[in-house]
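Tutorial handout. Part one gives the primary structure; part two gives the three-dimensional structure as tokens.
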Amino acid sequence: MLLAGDIGGTKTVLGVFSTELGPRQPVVEKSYPSADYGSLEEIALSFLAETGLPVESAVFGVAGPVIQGRAEITNLPWVMEEGHLAETLRVRNARLINDLDAIANSVPHLGVEDVRCLIPGEAVEGGAIAVIAPGTGLGEAFLTWDGNRYRPHASEGGHASFAPSDDLQIGLLTYLMGKLGHVSFERVCSGLGIPNIYEYLKATGEAVEPDWLAEELALASDPTRVIVNAGIDPARRCELCELTLDVFVSILGSEAGNLALKVLATGGVYVGGGIPPRILPRLIHGERFATAFREKGRFTDVLSQVPVNLIMHPRAALVGAAVRGFAEVLAKYE
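Part two.
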């Protein structure tokens, strides 16, 4: 049996997988609020004690760079090291991979029921595939075909410098530079970034903040959730929140197109993360996302052929971590 995990700044999801059921169906699964625990080891030990299942190895997708078997969560004060994890959990080996590496591992295993088409196109067989996922932060990865199967590659592209694509976004960049100095795409295209867009639009008078929303935000521990809910609720419309999500969607579309060009993603682009499925009404409303994705000057025609799909599977990163774990086990017997 294999212990797999999706370790994020907001929540940690763990599952035990067996070779009989495969990577898409955990034997048991549980979610934990990450900030309530001091370490991954603390959560994993509690989970294993509760399940009582023996596991031989572990793979964790983590929201941060993994360098020489060591990782830190970008938005959480945890430090993880493969050797220490293996020793503490009493498993033969423990592997840390980037969370987008995990999502990328899941892509070849997704069925038609697990995705929704955002932009139709013609995928080239064996072409590179791009993955972009706004959650708490912004993750990016890609897959290349080696002649036998797709191999995922992690990146930290979400921390590359934000490139505005219209006058409003130029103003947003200038506003955030005054506060933050360097402005990455994660600062404007993630759960952490949505409040930044909101505050800019509010400060510049693009739309008025209603009193009821100001009261909710003052009491909220997670302003992103409040803004998102107010931006998609037809029963209680908020122009400021709707505009915030529209700007977010445009930025997401633009950066998805940037990533597609960087890796020449003729095999398609997959949008993952926790935010896009939550804002689906704004994401598919009109041509905002598609226009931002395709408008790349002389390479507009190239991107017009690239299909873009939204990952709807709620546990894609967990599935991908399990896929990676089973692949490493099988590799030992090749």
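Part three, for discussion. The two ends are 19 Å apart (CA to CA). The chain has a mean pLDDT of 94.
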